[in-house]
Amino acid sequence: MPFTIVSQGTQIQPATAINLIVPLPSGCDYFKTYNLTQLATTQSTGRNVMGEWFGGGLTAVNDGIDYFKSNSSSNAMNVSTFAQQSVNGFTYVNSFPAPQAALTGTTITQATNAVASVTNTYSNGDQVVIYNAVGMQQISGMTFTISSVSGSGFTLLGLNSSGFATAATSFMVRRVALYTPVEPSYLYVTGISQATQGVVTVSQQHNYQVGQAVEFTIPGSFGMVQLNNYYLPQNKPPIITAVTAYTFTINVNTSGFTAFAFPASASSPTAQLFATVAPAGQQATYNPITGIQTGYNFQYVPFRTGIFVPYMMVSAGAQSPGGSAGDTIVWQAYKMETGTINSPVPS
Amino acid sequence: MSFSTGITGIQNMAPELPVQASEDLLSTPMFNLIHSFGVDLHHAESYIGKTTRMSRFERLSTDGGQLDGSGIDPASEVPVRTDIDATMEIYAKSIVTNEQLVLWENSKTLTKFTALLGQWLREKEDLLMRDLFSSSVSYLNATGGLNGDQPSNISLNDVNNIENILLGNDARSMLTNLEATLKFATGGVRDAFIALANTNLSSDLQKVQGVLLKSAYPTQEGIRPEEYCSISRFRFFVSSKAAKTPGISLKGNTIYTIPMYGLEAAAKIEQNNYTAVIGYRPPWVVSSVAQNSQLYAKFAIARAITNQNWISGLNVTTFMPS
After folding, report:
1. What Rg do the C-alpha atoms of chain A give, in angstroms?
2. Cα of B81 to nearest chain A Cα, Å
3. Which of B82, B86, B149 is facing A302, going by the closest CB pair?
């Protein structure tokens, strides 16, 4: 038996299609996807209906064989590669992924939600590191979650750059892994309000939870050093009382603290340019009035592996193997019993 | 080819065996295991779930408390308990060996493969602890170096800044002092916190003001081979696998992460009876014709940062781009 299906499953893409991360505990020599939704339709534009990936280095990173429909009159099947069609394909990851190749961007705007202009093939929800942001060095080296991605740029919902002195006139960006090797991870703080309960904004979509304890590292260059543990009464870790995608509220009255503000771009590289927050456990509480109990979140709060390796990343997109919103994707992973796909051993 | 000298040589009588194995195998490369050093070791029991909870009572407030003689009691305080949770995970590796290899290979393969699996087990564990440090701890950028990068190369000011943070958070040093002795070119070493660095930083560490290389310690007794030097209140241990992220400094150079911590900053939790399991599945189990056997190693581990205030660290680049 030369080939065995070691894993298979289906995934229905949510309203905003996402790159599928398929864990492959025993590795993979051959991987295949079908888009059942698009197979059952007639198409006039390029829609992927089947994708293939070969191991052993035969398929390049972010590539694969692209079977797609493009002719409405005959529903004809076309065969190409994802790379040739300039769309994202399969990426097999067998060790924790290093930052991808750098892209050179042109501008990052001064706006409530900063917008970066760069020709890219990224997807919504990807994580990127931006560095050497000329004119906006205060964010150089930070990791961001990107949204509203187009081929020419993306939005940084976790960065309010409207108070910065200048826009960035050029920058470098690399896509990095969706998760850190261990979660929960530290995060970059991009804003903290002065309020009875301070609201913290971070550069990435976070998985911090209500009831979770956190510790801040706020350098003097950012102002609000009072949130550092050794300034707090009793040195107790702040507790999260509410969360949104990019923010969380803490049980610390920050209204009398020094305002939080980024240092100037010109401070680089001699000033500390990162304010960070790190996970510090949780506190168990029970409110008999609301019936809400916190402190027993065993899914997101415990320290644990952030991402299972190896895995196959199946890119989302109309002509990519992960499909678009609402598409049902079937995937199968195959493994050779002996040898590898480009040097098989008779068995 | 023929020879007419009449002398019998290797030209007409080559050795029966063209090669012989040397008396012992060469060393298998192994990187320095530094990331479990100095963390607390806890144990998890079986049959009670896969999450281990470590709890700490936070100290009481020292505000107020004076009695004025009126008979009015001071306000009572509700103590706070912080819970640190860690999820147990299992890792494994196996080697399937054909009987013909076992039969004909010179070097006692099953014994050697068992040793390889044992080494994998400790190396994997070390990298898992490294990943904990690199993912879940806040780091400061070094800014005192002169390479013009962001972060800069390491400097004494940067090291002292981390010491200030740890001392400000009441962290306790990990290693006791080494008293000075009457030996030329040596100096005493203060009680110290631990710092873990990549070997690529060794030349930069040598240049930090006030560095005391390991050879200048007053004694070498009990000093671990992984140790490199002492700077200020930190003793640096190095490994080629210590954390780094290529190509994301301001100048596009590699950023190295140096965790720096004191007592009870991090923990490794071992599952009882699952710390290091190495096993053998004989050929009649693995193969229908009893030709393949299997060696395996597996272990369970959970890891956690138990006190964020007692661990900090630096992001640095190297003085010369790397």
Report:
1. 23
2. 6
3. B86
- Tokens (6 digits) for B114: 């068992």
Count CB atoms within 10 A of the CB of residue B247. 18
> Which of B86, B138, B247 is nearest residue A278 as measured by Cβ atoms?
B138
CA B176 to chain A, closest CA, distance in angstroms equals 25
Q: A233 Cβ partners below 8 Å, 6+ apart? A: B61, B63
Q: Per the structure block, which two tokens stand in for A12?
A: 């229905």
ipTM of this predicted structure: 0.90
**Residues in chain A closer than 8 A to B315 (CB atoms):** 141
Of B58, B132, B247, the CB nearest to A303: B132
Domain-wise residue ranges, chain A: 3-95+309-344, 103-176, 182-303
Q: How many whole angstroms from its chain centre is CA A230?
A: 32
Greatest mean pLDDT among A16-20, A70-74, A273-277:
A273-277
Read off the pLDDT of each residue in A296-317 and give the average, rounded to a whole number.
92
Q: Helix or strand or coil: residue A231?
A: helix
Same CATH fold assignment for domains A103-176 and A182-303: yes
Q: What is each CA distance from B140 to A164, A220, A270, B78, in whole angstroms?
A: 22, 12, 12, 34
Give contacts of A272 with chain B, Cβ < 8 Å.
Answer: 140-141, 143
Answer yes or no: is pLDDT of A1 > 50: no
Upper half-sphere CA count for residue A266 (Cβ side, 13 Å): 2
**Whole-number Å distance between alpha carbons of B17 and B20:** 7
Whether A346 has a pLDDT exceeding 60, the answer reads: no
Local structure of residue A317 (DSSP, 8 states): B
Give B83's contacts in chain A (Cβ within 8 Å).
281-284, 295
Higher pLDDT: A25 or A277? It is A277
Amino acid, res. B26? L
Q: Which residue of A has its CA nearest to B167?
A: A230
Instruction: Give domain A103-176's CATH architecture.
Output: Beta Barrel (2.40)
- pTM value is 0.90
> Hey, is A304 helix, strand or coil?
strand
The answer to whether A284 contacts B252, with C-beta atoms less than 8 Å apart, is: no
- HSE-up of residue B223 (Cα within 13 Å, Cβ side): 20
Q: With respect to CATH, is domain A182-303 assigned 2.60.40.1730?
A: no
Q: If you average pLDDT over residues B3-32, what whole number do you get? A: 87
DSSP string, B248-273: -STTSPPEEEEEEE-TTSEEEEEETT
Instruction: Give the SS3 label for residue B164.
Output: helix
